[in-house]
Design goal:
Deoxyuridine 5'-Triphosphate Nucleotidohydrolase, Chain A; 27% strand; 7 helices
Length: 260
């Protein structure tokens, strides 16, 4: 089923920026086959959201004090303060209304924290009312040894602007390659209610094993004991049940927050 109103609309502002692609359940092929077949929790997390890319190939170098950057077309490495995407300022001003000209977003910005760079994906986004975008590292994909993306929640239902990420460089003295063809981030839709104070502050706690009630033990028996006692028990029961539930779910009701 498709939704009448998209949860999110991505706007490409830099022409060379790859459009977001659905995140794949294989973790870009890095998940073991056994995890793909039998661990729906891992596969679902890997496929939750969209992969975002850098809008061009470029390189960063941190010497411990100054961050330098380089891309094809530059003869030398340049110290990074704030850098525009090549030729984008002119392209922006040629299209933008007069009141917005001169306000093209920077592509790279060295922040005041040591070794931290803000990078623009070349995209903007607008979410449906009550929804946010979580920008985070790729789910279940091995992290790059030279940098770590920060996570951030953007309430893009009322704030419309460029989708940035902050990168913490973790290696000095060696150029760090960023390639346009390789996904860099994962964007995930999150209902704002999910991280509201009533929800997060209202979590119930069961302090000990003895506090589990009859319903808890009955569900534990159904989920864990019964499958393991079955003569033909095979792994992957949770994954199969999760797939059945997804096939029977109605995304329109989930989006609208209604119930039967």
């Amino acid at each position: 089923m498709t939704l009448a109103t998209p949860c999110v609309t991505f706007h490409r502002m830099i022409d060379t920026a790859p459009l977001p692609a659905r995140a794949d359940r294989s973790g870009l092929g890095s998940l073991p086959i056994r995890a793909m077949r039998h661990c729906d929790a891992v596969a679902s997390a890997s496929g939750f959201g969209w992969h975002l890319h850098a809008p061009m190939d470029f390189r960063l170098l941190w010497d411990g004090a100054q961050i330098w950057w380089h891309c094809d077309g530059l003869e030398d490495w340049l110290p990074l303060g704030a850098a525009q995407f090549p030729h984008f300022a002119e392209r922006f001003d040629a299209v933008a209304p007069e009141a917005s000209r001169g306000y093209a977003p920077p592509f790279l910005t060295a922040l005041q924290e040591p070794g931290v760079v803000q990078m623009w994906t070349g995209l903007a986004a607008r979410t449906a009312p009550g929804w946010s975008l979580l920008l985070r590292p790729l789910a279940n994909v091995p992290r790059h040894p030279a940098y770590e993306p920060y996570e951030g929640l953007v309430e893009a239902d009322h704030w419309f602007g460029p989708l940035f990420t902050n990168l913490r460089l973790t290696r000095t003295g060696t150029p760090i390659e960023f390639r346009r063809a390789e996904p860099l981030l994962q964007a995930q839709p999150v209902p704002q209610m999910a991280y509201s104070e009533p929800v997060l502050g209202g979590a119930a706690m069961s302090p000990a094993l003895e506090a589990m009630g009859p319903a808890d033990w009955a569900d534990y028996h159904r989920s864990i004991v019964v499958p393991n006692q079955a003569p033909d028990h095979r792994p992957g029961g949770y994954a199969a049940e999760a797939r059945r539930r997804r096939r029977g779910a109605c995304p329109h009701r989930a989006m609208a927050g209604t119930a039967d």
